[in-house]
Amino acid sequence: MGNDVLESFKGAYEAEVSLTGKEILQQLVKNAEIACEEKVPMCQDTGYAVIFVELGQDVRIEGGDFYEAINEGVRKGYTEGYLRKSIVSHPLERKNTGDNTPAVIHTKIVPGDSLRIIIAPKGGGSENMSAIKMLRPADGIEGVKNFVIDTVKKAGPNPCPPIVVGVGIGGTFEKAAQLAKESLLRELGEKSKYPDIAKLEEDLFEEINKLGIGPQGLGGRTTALAVHVEIYAAHIASLPVAVNLNCHAARHKEVIF
Ligand code: SF4
User: Fold this and answer.
1) Structurally, how many domains does the chain consist of?
2) Which of 5, 45, 46, 164 to mutate to test the pocket of ligand 1 (most atoms within 8 A of CB)?
3) Which end of the chain has the least Cβ crowding within 10 Å, N or C?
4) Position 222 in a domain
5) Ligand 1 neighbour 124 (Cβ under 6 A)
6) Domain span including residue 150
7) What is the pLDDT of residues 10-35, one digit of tens each?
């Protein structure tokens, strides 16, 4: 977990008015500190290994299958690190693969000669509360707000709040979902570079924290630690909106070669 999440727990503790909420936030800080000191996971669900690769177009990968190498890293990390193995090989037969592979890998070709790999383990509880909707363009910004708030409201305590709300608007069905996921990689609270979208993030953050769900769903002001919105061009007939919720165990790390 990054310092940004720990700092946001501390900030939320100061702002929280519910005594139970304060108590939980204090426990979350303590839990995160123990996890850091003792090098153990902050939650038993150590997630689906979601990997984002930015491959410089001048890079050449030699010596084997790149995706197999990533999966080997995931295998070693989860086995040698004693992290929970949470992946089943077939969604209906549900037999555990035993080493948390395969990873979900998203690759982007970018200018340059470096290779950036980000790992963002994703907990199942919060992933299950995510949603996507194909709105009509006429639904506009109010339609977007209503869908995001409704998704958080329906999720209630299930995504282990306080949560990070990732929103993707535009593109196609799958692009919106990917934007929502990517938005979770931002440092907590880092604003969109578009002023109107930064304002939408602020408005959603305020509205979501008025819902009263609170830390672990036991009431309070701290339902969300941040709302991040990413946008993309849309078809004249479409307004896709995806909401990917992340729990308070918001983890991501990157390496650049
Ligand atoms: S949703 Fe997050 S905090 Fe809740 S059990 Fe899963 S990983 Fe842990």
Assistant:
1) 2
2) 45
3) C
4) yes
5) yes
6) 125-250
7) 999 999 999 999 999 999 999 999 99
